[in-house]
Amino acid sequence: YIIEYSLCCNKGKFRSKNQDNFFNSSQEVFIDEVASALSGKMNVIDVFQSFSQGYESGAGLYFNTDLNWTSDAAHLAYKEFCGVSGNAAITLETYEKKSIDGFLGSFYKATLSKYLEENADTFAYYQNADTDACKLTVYRNGSVSTKYTLLNNDLYTTSEAYSLYLGTTAPLFKLESPCSSGKKLLIIGDGSVAAMLPYLIANYSEIQYIDVALYNERIDTLLAENQFNDVLFMSYVTNAVKGDYPAHLETMAGVQIDE
After folding, report:
1. Which residues have C-beta within 8 Å of that of residue 241, sequence separation ≥ 6?
2. Could you give the C-alpha distances from 191 to 123, 173, 214, in angstroms and in order?
3. What is the pTM of this model?
4. Which residues are registered as beta bridge partners of 232?
5. Which residues neighbour 44 within 8 Å (Cβ) at sequence distance 6 or greater?
6. How far is CA 74 from each of CA 77, 80, 154, rounded to the nearest angstrom?
7. How far is CA 252 from CA 214, 218, 221, 248, in A?
8. FRET pair for 41, CA 20 to 30 Å: which of 16, 63, 129, 170?
9. Distance between CA 51 and CA 53 in Å, rounded?
């Protein structure tokens, strides 16, 4: 399965604009081209229409001050994934909604804009007994750590609210949940994955998440040592051509793609 999503800032006076060609071009066209190229090779999950409808109706899918999607947006994508993968989607009513006021994300940190500071976001997230019961193992540079949790990690400032999820950055995470399905999911993606994990644990007993930006190894061994029921690739569209991301994907696949 593959989910690609586009950047849409909140509707109204806080909408961000960018003058480069990518943000002025149609991301829907780009997503359709990717889907066409992958047709017959994997299940492509189109979240563009549901996100577009949510955006137009005023749903809080993105932050004013940060490039990431919100927990509500992640749940919308989660429902679309469940519809394609045959999983039963858990509703938000089974969670307790919590929030952190005064969230100032990456847009603010990059600009230190007084205007953004005066219009800080509320960072909402969803928690229940299952999210608390998950065991998280973090793999980084040959070391293994179990000191972090899926949620409730320490925050140094409200501008780092996204670190509530997983608590740190690392090439590989493993989540063991109370879910009794026995199913295992491998996710290959970017930082947007974190906000969807509290929902996916309702369907999978184990989830392994590779952060492409940091993982620079082949995945043959990982795939051979695990019997994953599903593999999900999720990425914000611009990451396909940003930084080390493409090279890391090539390394993981054990191929080199010529320009």
Report:
1. none
2. 16, 12, 11
3. 0.86
4. 187
5. 1, 2, 4, 34, 35, 38
6. 5, 10, 22
7. 11, 4, 10, 6
8. 170
9. 5
pLDDT band per the 50, 70, 90 thresholds, residue 113: very high
- DSSP string for residues in 190-210: -GGGGGGHHHHTTT-SEEEEE
Look up residue 1 and give its two tokens: 């399965």
In the Cβ-directed half-sphere of 203, how many Cα atoms lie within 13 Å?
21
Please give the average per-residue pLDDT across 44-56, as a whole number: 82
Amino acid at position 66, single letter: D
Q: pLDDT digits over 135-192, tens only?
A: 999 999 999 999 999 998 887 677 778 889 999 999 999 999 999 999 999 999 998 8
What does the block give as tokens for 249? 């994907």
Reference 192, options 90, 106, 113; nearest CA is: 106
The rounded mean pLDDT for the chain is 85
The tokens 């740190």 sit on which residue? 168
Share above pLDDT 70 across residues of the chain, in percent, rounded to a whole number: 86
**Cβ neighbour number for residue 60 with a 10 Å cutoff:** 18
Whether residue 80 contacts residue 50, with contact meaning beta carbons closer than 8 Å, is answered with yes
More confident residue, 19 or 37: 37
Cβ–Cβ under 8 Å, residues 236 and 8: no
